[in-house]
Amino acid sequence: MKKIMMLLIAAVLLAGCNSTDKKTNEASANSEASAAEWVEVVINVDGMTCDGCENAINAGVESLDGIASVESSHEEGWTKVKYDKAVTSAEDIEGKITDTGYTVKSEL
């Protein structure tokens, strides 16, 4: 009985490992396929006064689909975003910043 249980557990573990590898390979292939679509934009933002402001903007922008990275500087008044242009746009990102309560400026 113990041998049967051990065989069943081993089978389940092996099946789980194989499906995880397949998902990882698919995700890697999808990532590589869309890698050519990544762009970076620096958006001038008014109204940030502290690290909390940076965090609020970063969290808001990160909630959008297609965002790879977000970095903000309240001292210099900008937010830098790397995103997949096939999934979202600079206008969507600017809209999210505005929705978060900050002003997008045309110039620094």
Name the CATH class of one domain.
Answer: Alpha Beta
Which quaternary structure do these chains form? Answer: single chain
Main beta-sheet strand count, sense and barrel state: 4 strands, antiparallel
In total, the number of strands is 4
What is the arithmetic mean of pLDDT?
A: 82
C-alpha termini separation: 73 Å
Q: What is the string of helix and strand elements?
A: HEHEEHE
Structural class: alpha+beta
Overview of this structure, please?
This protein has helices at 2-34, 51-62, 90-99, and strands at residues 38-46, 67-73, 78-84, 103-105. The protein is of the alpha+beta class and 108 residues long. A four-stranded antiparallel beta sheet has the order 2-3-1-4. Strand 2 (67-73) and strand 3 (78-84) form a beta hairpin. The model is unreliable at 18-23 (pLDDT under 50).
Structure, briefly:
The protein has 108 residues and is of the alpha+beta class. It contains 3 helices and 4 strands. It has helices at 2-34, 51-62, 90-99, and strands at 38-46, 67-73, 78-84, 103-105.
Supply database-style keywords:
108 residues; alpha+beta; Alpha-Beta Plaits; 3 helices; 51% helix; elongated
Write the layout of secondary structure elements.
Blueprint: H1 2-34, E1 38-46, H2 51-62, E2 67-73, E3 78-84, H3 90-99, E4 103-105
Antiparallel strand pairs: 1-3, 1-4, 2-3
